[in-house]
Amino acid sequence: MNKIIFIGTHGVGKTTLLEDVRSHINTLAKFNINNLKDKIVFITETPREWQKLNKVNWREMDSEDYMCFQRAVFSYYHWALGLNNNIISDRGLPDIVAYTMHFINKTYYKNALPLDDLVHCATFDEDLNRMIGSLYDSEKYDVINGNLYEKKKTGAEVVHLGDVIPRPKLEPPPSTRPKHNKTFYFYKGKLDDLKDDQIIIQDILEYLLYKYKIVHKVIYRSDYNDIKNEILQSVDKW
Fold it and tell me: Which of 117-121, 210-214, 227-231 has the lowest mean pLDDT?
């Protein structure tokens, strides 16, 4: 199965690009040029829809409600992106981790705590580290004290994050999970166009992508048409 996942701070254009791709695919299907419409699941605007449905605003939530909301969003995406479908999503797990890290840092540390230290913070440590544990390739790496290490077949005591952090209840059993080909597009905004919160979240995402060795392609608004065509060419082979 193939997954295309846009990540980036809010307001940079992820959903706009996804909807443009979806519209183009639906047009092709309408004229029977291909059957891609039935091959792809689009995941878009889920957190915003949940907020509308429950008549809440994440900016107005207290600490407990915000973490409950992010846990729900994380569990949903962890489950949905693991389904046996071709998927294009305007949000990925790194986004949810980044927003959670930003909330904790802003609320409890006034944005003063370095990100490496934030990974180990005691406040909501279990939730944050469960999210972070989902980002790395568990077949290849171990995470020790928030740092990523190549797996080594030695007798040394190594605490494997996957063994100690509880997973979402909706996760498919490992024996039934299909092999997925994931393509991450990191949609970045230019600093002059972003507000303070957007800049911080973008910085956290960049930190997570490099710290946990997530292969990705950086794109900007100026790349819009090229990336759209690249994606359409890719999905045409699915």
Answer: 117-121
**pLDDT tens-digit map of 123-140:** 555 677 677 777 766 666
Both ends of the chain: CA-CA distance in Å?
A: 8
40 backbone dihedrals φ, ψ, rounded to 5°: -125, 135
Tell me the C-alpha distance between 128 and 16, whole Å.
29
Question: What is the percent of the chain where pLDDT is above 90?
Answer: 32
Q: Residues 189, 9: contact at Cβ < 8 Å?
A: yes
Task: Look at 8 and 44; give whichever has higher pLDDT.
Answer: 8
Full 3-state SS string of the chain: CEEEEEECCCCCCHHHHHHHHHHHHHHHHHCCCCCHHHCEEEECCHHHHHHHHHCCCHHHCCHHHHHHHHHHHHHHHHHHCCCCCEEEECCCHHHHHHHHHHHHHHHHHCCCCCHHHHCCCCCCHHHHHHHHHCCCCCCCEEEECCEEEECCCCCCCCCCHHHHCCCCCCCCCHHHCCCCEEEEEEECCCHHHCCHHHHHHHHHHHHHHHHCCCCEEEECHHHHHHHHHHHHHHHCCC
Q: Which of 8-22, 29-43, 93-107 has the lowest mean pLDDT?
A: 29-43
pLDDT at 163 (0 to 100): 42
Crossing angle of helices 14-30/224-235, nearest 10°? 50
